[in-house]
Design brief:
single chain; 17 strands; alpha/beta; seven-stranded mixed sheet; 396 residues; globular
Length: 396
């Protein structure tokens, strides 16, 4: 098939055509077990009937009305986010990049408004990932994503992730925000330490800076709690969300407090499609399922099964030396002798009907549906073992 799209993506050698739950079928009719979850997006699996119903109902009522008006679905989802988080107010957009862009703009304006423009510096982590806009790739701390777009926005300093001393040496009176992923996703499923996030919160309080948690990937149940910050007991000032918030229907959001939200006065920021009624209707229905105690308990149980199985496979094959992460957001770290070859394993798995991800070149990433069944889990693991054994035979 001729590709009419720009070449910034390297597409897999198959074209998905339909999907249900944790199974996907391509245009040739071949079946795959999906343990990638659309990169942590399809939190309730593919073609979830409850979400289809929500979308269909809203599609027959109202698609788009512009941000001159608010809508029932937008208020309903915002209320749920507020009532089950630290926040008081929500801003809706369309993606994780837009959510982080809004969070960073809000933090910088909040700081500047209170310091005659001097409090504008952002502290971020090396090897983080916050999106693909020029601002968010600049904050992300991965030159491979930003170097081609220089000159970049200024006033951004990067420190090593989980390095307390570096954080203490960098955050100061000119800092307006510290932005952290509670679990670094694209760089290898690396959880923040308790002490690191405690230090970040203390330094932000000490210097009047805002603590921003990027929960685009960790939010909405993937870790076994609704939001990852709950594991740490450390509350941010702003939280960004996307991915699983709409379970595949594009939507992003930031959640913040009544102290900070007024900084975004009329006209200071906006989004044409932000708060889209269909996106919010799907998100609201998804929220109810994800936030149900039985769903979160299932995530914990299935996550533990997946972790133990991956550790066992690592011991059997020697391919994985460590499994890290929380809940159903896990990364299998390659042993030293196989460093840099995660992409090969992803391709090998796909050949055997299994969809997984990479997180950098040394980690195979798993972010399946929060409703993952034992049957799909076992089938997926069986295919992974077969793929690894074949790959090892060829690799040697």
């Amino acid at each position: 098939m001729h590709n009419y799209l720009t070449p910034n993506f390297s597409f897999a050698p198959m074209i998905p055509e339909r999907a249900l739950g944790s199974r996907v079928w391509d245009t040739e009719g071949r079946e795959y077990v999906d343990l990638s979850g659309g990169i942590a997006v399809n939190a309730l699996g593919h073609s979830n009937p409850v979400l289809i119903e929500a979308l269909s109902e809203q599609a027959n009522k109202l698609w788009h009305i512009s941000n001159i008006y608010t809508t029932g679905p937008a208020q309903e989802l915002a209320q749920k986010l507020v009532e089950h988080s630290f926040g008081d107010k929500v801003f809706f957009c369309n993606s994780g990049a837009e959510a982080n862009e809004a969070a960073l703009k809000l933090a910088r304006k909040y700081g500047r408004d209170r310091s005659n423009g001097e409090k504008n510096e952002i502290v971020a982590c090396l090897n983080s990932f916050h999106g693909r806009t020029v601002f968010t790739v600049s904050v992300g701390g991965q030159p491979k994503y930003s170097q081609d777009y220089a000159p970049l926005p200024q006033g951004i300093t990067h420190v090593p992730f989980n390095d307390i001393a570096a954080l203490e040496a960098t955050v100061g009176e000119k800092t307006c925000a510290v932005i952290i992923e509670p679990i670094q996703g694209e760089s290898g499923i690396l959880p923040a330490t308790q002490e690191y996030l405690e230090t970040a919160r203390r330094l932000c309080d000490q210097h009047g800076a805002l603590l921003v948690f990027d929960e685009v990937q960790t939010g909405m149940g993937h870790t076994g709690k609704l939001f990852a910050y709950e594991h740490y007991g450390i509350v941010p000032d702003i939280m960004s969300l996307a991915k699983a918030l709409g379970c595949g229907f594009p939507i992003g959001a930031i959640v913040t407090t009544d102290t900070i939200a007024p900084t975004f006065g009329p006209g200071t920021h906006g989004s044409t499609f932000g708060g889209n009624p269909m996106a919010c209707a799907v998100g609201s229905r998804a929220f109810d399922i994800i936030n149900a105690p039985e769903t979160l308990a299932h995530v914990v149980a299935q996550g533990e099964k997946l972790r133990r199985a991956l550790e066992s496979i690592g011991q059997e094959t020697g391919v994985f030396k460590q499994v890290r992460g929380m809940g159903l957001l896990l990364g299998a770290v390659l042993s030293d002798e196989y460093q840099g070859r995660a992409g090969e394993i992803m391709s090998a798995a796909l050949k055997h009907g299994l969809m997984v991800l990479v997180a950098g070149s040394n980690v195979v990433r798993f972010a399946p549906s929060l409703l993952l069944s034992d049957e799909d889990l076992e089938e997926g693991l069986g295919r992974l073992k077969t793929a690894l054994n074949e790959w090892l035979a060829q690799a040697e």
